[in-house]
Every structure is written in C-alpha cells, then in structure tokens.
Design brief:
With 561 residues, this protein is of the alpha/beta class. The chain has 22 helices and nine strands. It has a nine-stranded mixed β-sheet with strand order 4-3-5-2-6-1-7-8-9, sandwiched between helices. It starts with a helix and ends in a 57-residue tail after the last helix. The C terminus is likely disordered. This is Dynamin N-terminal domain-containing protein.
C-alpha cells in the first residue's frame, strides 16, 4: 500500500462516504479506494517498434516481455509485484485464463485466447523493482480507428470511463485505455519526433484528462540513440543535443526527454551478459586496433570476417549489445585487460543512459507517489461527483472533497493542478514564473524551490514571503482571469511554505509530514558525458565521473542542467 498523509486522508474520505452513497456510486468509490492500495501505475506508450518492451524489461529487471512481434506483443500487459511468478490472460468479460511462463521466464508468444477476446495480460513477478511501481506495456500506435470499446472501458478507472475525448486515427484503443488508467506515463520514440507522434501524445493527454496526461507526470524516452551514428561510434555527442531539441518540441506534453540505448539497458539490467560473453569480448579486444576497426565498420563485417571468436558467438553479442555496446566493451578491455565481468556490466549500464532514467523516475514519480496518487484519486472522485445519477451522491462527494482540499497540506494538490494547466499550455505565464510554479508543485523542500541551498531558515522564510507577494501583485495587476486563478494558488502556496519554514525549522511541513525530497538532495552519477570525441575506442566512457555543478532535474526545461 502507498503510505503517505495525502493518500491516507483520501482513503479515509472513501471509507467515510462510501457507505452513505447509492450502490452504484459506492462501488465506484470502492474502486478508487482499492487503487490507493496499489503501487504507482506507469504506462509505457509509443509507436510500434519503438523499443517499448525492451525498456519494460530493463525497468522490471528481467527479460520477460517478448520484443519480437507476436500475439503477446499486440495486447496490453501489466507487470506488478507478487509472491510468485504468474501470468493470467484477462478476457474482456472479466474472466481469467492462467498460462505458464516459458522456461526462459518470458511470456509465451501464443496466449491461447483469441486476441480480440483479450482485455489485457496480468503478470505478477517476484521482482523488488515492482514493489512500488506497476509497469504497463502497451502495444503502441496502430492503424485502427475505433472508439474505446465497452470492454476496454472496464479496464479504466471510473472517471476515465466517462471520458468522451476523441481518439486519434492512429491510436490503438487498448493502448489508450491502458494509458488512461495509469497515473504516470513514459512516451517512447526514436529519431526525430514526428507530427503524428505529437498528435498521439496530445490524444493520450486528452483521454487522461487531469491524471496521467499531466506533463509533470509524463516523461519522454528518446530510445535507440546508439543507432544515431554508424560503426559503433559514441552516440552521446549527438544524442544529448537532440534530446534537448526534442524536449523543447514536447515541452507541453512531457516534463523531460531522456536519451537511452534500450537494448544495452535491457542486457545489463536483466543480467543477460554471461561470463562466456565477456571472455569473447576480451578475446576480440586482444586483436590489433586495425583489425578491431575493420570488424566494427559494419554488422556484416563483424559477423562474417574471420576472427578467433565463432560466428555464433558474435551474433549473440550483436543481439545483446549491438555495435555500440560491443565497441564500448572492447574499448574498456583494451584500456584495462584485467577488467572483471561485473565491472564491465556496470560500465555498460552507465553507457546505456539507464542510470539517468532510473534517477529521473525516482525524482519524477517514486518520491512523489503520495501526491500523485492522492491527486489521481481526488480527480476520480470529482469526476464521479459530476456524473453521479443521484443528487444526494453528488452533494456528499463534493462536500467531502471540499473538506479535504481546505486542509493546508492539500494545497499541494491545487498546486499540481495549477502547474499542469501552465506546463500544458492551457494557461500561459512568463517562463520564470512557470519555472517557479513547477518547482513549488514538485516538492516541499524550501531550499530547492527557492534555489537557495545555503540559505538560513529566516532567509528562506523571507524569500518565500517575497515570492508570495510577487504572485499576489501579478494576480491583481493585469493578469487574465485564468492567470489570476493560478497566481492565487501560487500565492497561498508560497505563504504556506513560509509558515512551514518558520514553524518547523525546515524539518517538517505544517501538516507534520516529512518534506518531500528535492531532486538536488539525491544526486545520481552524472548522465552520459555529452560532447566527448566519438568512436568506440575512446578510453573514457559516457557517465564517467565529472567535475562541475551537479546535474539537476528540471521538469519542463529539458531535464538535467
């Protein structure tokens, strides 16, 4: 269960109001209450063949989702924590059919149920990665043009089930259903973002309404960056600037764009590289530099040219690492012949960019789970209140929600809603004010919000009051009605922040709950070293320790700076 003061209070609201509602409304509130007990649900969405399943395997820490096209890759698959590995095919009528995983631990390519009858596949795994995160793999965008079916709507939570948002012509209806039912979203794309990608993301956002469609709760994954350059050369000097460009294009639909080499991430995180693979790489690294360069010139040369390593072994290395990963590994062995397999895997993980993604997920999702799920639940209850058939149900729900939102600690949820309206472009603010509001919505850490990490308690309190005054002046001095509403929320947020700092000496917020960790308090290893000279034989490696300022997570501003 997600433990936190915000979710606990919403759960209490559901327990209090549920028995007083009509049977239909009570069941819908119960469904919201149950979701509060579940891990944060993150959907992985994107175009077909974008590498979604490969990234899902990296996130789960096991190679369980097939990456080759088959029946099982055309349906929504949910991965969650369980005490035993298990696979259930959930039919559209709600019934379940249990199927064994393959001996390799992967989902079978054939599920034994007609595809059109499958709502989703429910997989439970004994992976600690899934204790606080449920991952939903979607089949991606297709050429269908259908509305969300009644069976797909059953997969949604009650508030989304009432959505009448139109679907894009290129969206798979089950994928839309899965994304709509999530609290956060990872959008996967390769190469340059296309106009139809942006349209698809906007459609996902529209059906997700105020929930997973919030740009603050969405991250773009720029996958397969190792394909940007030829011959296994270092892709990061190209991937870094491209990711920044993509972040600018997508700033209204995602909070950040993270570049990643998905295959390399899957191989390292799922433990696929064996000791025999490492020895084969060590053997190849022992060849002359000229011979290595010839081998790495193309996939065909790497597989077919005569060398001490068998063709079958080289084909396996390509399937695990591709040319970039192989070239990177050869550079490490050439630089340090005695390198152990464990150290090589660690370096390959850094080279994949996955360490940065994992840290970004922590900052953007895991450390804000309490607020994300509470906001999701209240939005669901508000939607129920607007659609309940009985007037008494509507009044009971609205009164209960308003009582909760009047509590000071719940102003964070109003801040999240205000930040969403700004980051999505619905309300336009000056860039600096947008940045300030986003920081205020993400955490209760005053030093990070105010960008004053060395300030005293009194300095922080004064700065928070000054910010509150700026927002109040903005609200009454020429702002549009929509801007004024956002400004009033920000004004109260900074005023409460000043109270928190003075009343709790920066140790605890007014509500008595521990402050939400600010991103700069949890610095990851630096992200891939953009700008290094390309080529697989460079002694350095992407992600090597660097001097200089820490790389901070900056939603809406292209990520790390």
């Amino acid at each position: 269960m997600v433990q936190g003061p915000l979710t606990n209070r919403v759960a209490a609201l559901c327990d209090e109001v549920g028995p007083r509602l009509s049977p239909v409304s009570a069941q819908q509130v119960l469904a919201v209450r149950r979701r509060l007990d579940e891990a944060l649900r993150v959907a992985v969405a994107g175009r077909l063949k974008a590498g979604k399943s490969t990234l899902v395997n990296a996130l789960v820490g096991r190679r369980v989702a097939p990456t080759a096209v088959g029946e099982c890759t055309r349906v929504v698959t949910q991965f969650r924590y369980g005490t035993a590995d298990r696979l259930d095919v959930v039919r559209r009528d709600g019934s379940r059919v249990s199927r064994p995983l393959e001996e390799s631990g992967m989902i079978p390519m054939q599920l034994g149920v007609p595809r059109e009858d499958i709502a989703f596949v429910d997989v439970t795994l004994t992976s600690d990665r899934l204790r606080d995160l449920t991952v939903v793999d979607t089949p991606g965008l297709s050429s269908t043009n259908q509305s969300i079916s009644a069976a797909s709507s059953a997969y949604l939570t009650p508030d989304q089930a009432t959505s009448d948002a139109p679907l894009d012509d290129d969206l798979d209806d089950d994928s839309v259903a899965a994304v709509s039912g999530a609290e956060a979203v990872l959008y996967v794309f390769t190469q340059a973002v296309r106009a139809d990608d942006i349209a698809a993301l906007s459609t996902f956002q529209s059906v997700s309404a105020r929930l997973s469609g919030n740009p603050i709760n969405s991250i773009g994954l720029f996958n397969k960056v190792d394909k940007l350059v030829a011959g296994g050369a270092d892709p990061w000097p190209v991937a870094g600037p491209l990711a920044s460009d993509q972040a600018g294009v997508l700033r209204r639909v995602v909070s950040e764009v993270v570049p990643i080499a998905g295959l390399l991430a899957e191989t390292t995180e799922a433990g696929r590289l064996t000791a025999a693979d490492c020895e084969a790489l060590r053997t190849l690294a022992g060849l002359s530099q000229t011979e290595r360069m010839v081998l790495m010139a193309s996939v065909d040369l790497f597989i077919n040219r005569d060398c001490p390593v068998s063709k079958a072994q080289r084909e396996r290395l390509l399937s695990l690492l591709d040319l970039y990963g192989i070239g990177f590994a050869l550079a490490q062995f050439a630089n340090k012949p005695e390198l152990g397999s464990g150290e090589l895997v660690r370096l390959l993980l850094q080279a994949s960019g996955f360490a940065r993604l994992r840290n970004t997920l922590d900052q953007a999702f895991r450390w804000r789970t309490d607020a994300i799920k509470a906001a999701w639940a209240l939005s669901s209850l508000e939607r129920l209140a607007g659609h309940a058939a009985a007037q008494q149900d509507r009044e009971l729900l609205r009164d209960a929600i308003e009582r909760v939102l009047q509590q000071p600690e719940y102003h964070r949820l109003r801040l999240l809603e205000a930040a969403q309206s700004v980051t999505s472009g619905a309300v336009v603010l000056p860039e600096q004010m947008e940045r300030e509001l986003t920081r205020l919505a993400l955490t209760t850490d005053a030093a990070w919000i105010l960008e004053m990490p060395q300030a005293s308690v009194e300095q922080l309190a004064q700065a928070a009051l000054a910010a509150a005054n700026r927002w109040r002046v903005f609200a009454v001095a020429g702002a549009s009605p929509a801007q004024a509403r956002v400004a009033q929320v920000a004004h109260r947020g900074f005023f409460l922040l000043a109270q928190q700092v003075r009343g709790q000496n920066s140790a605890h917020p007014v509500s008595g709950a521990a402050p939400v960790a600010a991103p700069w308090q949890h610095q990851p290893p630096p992200p891939p070293g953009y700008g290094r000279a390309p080529g697989p034989y460079t002694p350095g490696y992407p992600g090597a320790p660097q001097s200089g300022p820490p790389h901070q997570y900056r939603p809406g501003h292209g990520g790390y700076r």
